[in-house]
């Protein structure tokens, strides 16, 4: 029997951020992960890497604002290169009707506390993103947003956690949680049982079975979310992250010059650890990007892949305590947009375990589903 104060199941970006913040508080932390850190097909390996505040649900806004401020100095804090670029997030309108919707969207952003989000006209959009297509008539620009490398970021959090004393067991399966009455006292793993004061479930798509086995039934599903990377352009064409009303598209240019495409296009689940790409969705995602930024069409598809993500029915994360069980905290179900808020989620969960008030988690707690 191994003993620790905090056991974290899952070493992805959220789990490792939680470990880092707890270790800085002097807590003894053990992280177990079924593979290597940020390895295929985990969401932290496959993430698009967007760091976005605009368009967030009100329940996530406080975390997104906090995380955005942290991202500015996160490379210095973690002493690592994260390939972070603060180029903003630009949501496009390609018709007058969509421009009207965009104006209402910006009003909602202001009500959520994002006063720096502005409406750009056709000329201003092209000053910011010169290569956008002719049909674009307006844009909503959030200047404090950007993007970073998800693998570099996840491993940077893990390395920083380890420097503060966190132990990592990689390539270690969590077979089951250990319940004793109304309390979870640890977990059974492929390296033996672990006794813990608090167990955090942050294993992404692999969290659902662990939780369900101890009576935590949540409205989640697993999806294989597709990403595409193009060949590298020699020109620095695109600074902000682009999306467009009416299109399933997230488009950015990486420091290497390659374009990275996402937008929620799906592959197929083969089993708990594998996926199959859908060729038709690769074509559709690519065509959406070319329609918005014609320069993409001058490149070729270099690679396509999927990451497995736990999706919640309300598209919000599940983070917090479980009403009917002690000794357990949930942090999963990020529904494809947990990467950006990971710095704030790590801090909030660490404070929660320390017994501090965390009102910023009120809208995403598990008890919205659990009696």
What does this structure look like?
The protein is α/β, with parallel strands linked by helices and 371 residues long. The protein has 2 domains: 2-71 and 150-219 and 314-368, FAD/NAD(P)-binding domain, CATH 3.50.50; 85-144 and 221-312, D-Amino Acid Oxidase, subunit A, domain 2 (D-Amino Acid Oxidase, Chain A, domain 2, 2-Layer Sandwich). Helix content is 28%, strand content 30%. The protein contains 10 helices and 20 strands. Strands 1, 2, 8, 9, 10, 11, 19 and 20 form an 8-stranded mixed β-sheet that branches. A 4-stranded mixed β-sheet has the order 5-6-4-13. A 4-stranded antiparallel β-sheet has the order 14-15-12-18. Helix 1 (13-24) packs across helix 10 (342-353) and helix 3 packs across helix 10. The radius of gyration is 21 Å and the shape is globular.
Distance between the termini: 33 Å
Task: Look at the helices and sheets and give the structural class.
Answer: alpha/beta
**Number of discrete helical segments:** 10
**Major sheet:** 8 strands, mixed
Shape descriptor: globular
Q: What Rg is obtained from the alpha carbons, in whole angstroms? A: 21 Å
Q: Report the order of strands and helices.
A: EHEHEHHEHEHEEHEEEEHEEEEEEHEEEH
What's the name of the CATH homologous superfamily of the largest domain?
FAD/NAD(P)-binding domain
The chain-level mean pLDDT equals 97
What is the CATH class name of the largest domain? Alpha Beta
CATH topology-level fold name of the largest domain: FAD/NAD(P)-binding domain
Estimate the strand proportion: 25-35%
Q: Are there runs of 5+ residues with pLDDT below 50, and where?
A: none
Q: Into which percent range does the helicity of residues fall?
A: 25-40%
What is the strand tally?
Answer: 20
CATH architecture of the largest domain: 3-Layer(bba) Sandwich
Tell me the domain tally.
2
């Amino acid at each position: 029997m191994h003993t620790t104060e905090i056991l974290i199941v899952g070493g992805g970006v959220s789990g490792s951020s939680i470990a880092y913040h707890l270790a800085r508080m002097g807590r003894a932390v053990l992280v177990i992960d079924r593979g290597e850190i940020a390895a295929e097909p985990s969401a932290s390996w496959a993430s698009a890497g967007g760091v976005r505040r605009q368009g967030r649900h009100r329940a996530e806004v406080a975390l997104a604002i906090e995380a955005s401020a942290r991202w500015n100095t996160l490379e210095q804090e973690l002493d690592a290169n994260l390939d972070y670029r603060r180029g903003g997030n630009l949501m496009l309108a390609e018709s007058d009707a969509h421009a009207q919707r965009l104006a209402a969207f910006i009003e909602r952003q202001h009500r959520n506390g994002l006063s720096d989000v502005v409406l750009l006209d056709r000329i201003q959009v092209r000053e910011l993103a010169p290569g956008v297509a002719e049909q674009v008539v307006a844009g909503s620009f959030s200047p404090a947003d950007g993007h970073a490398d998800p693998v570099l970021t996840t491993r940077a959090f893990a390395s920083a956690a380890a420097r503060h004393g966190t132990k990592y067991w990689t390539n270690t399966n969590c077979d089951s949680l250990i319940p004793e009455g109304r309390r979870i006292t640890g977990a059974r793993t492929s390296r033996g049982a672990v006794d813990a004061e608090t167990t955090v479930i942050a294993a992404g798509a692999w969290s659902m079975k662990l939780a369900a086995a101890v009576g935590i039934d949540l409205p989640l599903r697993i999806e294989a979310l597709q990403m595409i990377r193009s060949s590298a352009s020699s020109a620095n064409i695109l600074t902000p992250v682009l999306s467009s009303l009416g299109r399933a598209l997230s488009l950015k240019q990486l420091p290497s010059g390659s374009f990275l495409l996402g937008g929620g296009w799906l592959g197929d689940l083969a089993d708990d650890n594998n996926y199959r790409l859908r060729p038709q969705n690769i074509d559709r995602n690519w065509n959406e990007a070319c329609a918005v930024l014609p320069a993409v069409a001058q490149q070729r598809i270099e690679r396509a892949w999927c990451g497995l993500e736990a999706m919640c029915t309300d598209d919000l994360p599940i983070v917090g305590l479980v009403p009917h069980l002690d000794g357990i905290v949930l942090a999963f179900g990020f529904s494809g947009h947990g990467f950006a808020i990971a710095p704030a989620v790590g801090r909030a969960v660490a404070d929660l375990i320390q017994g501090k008030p965390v009102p910023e988690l009120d809208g995403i707690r598990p008890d919205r589903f659990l009696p």
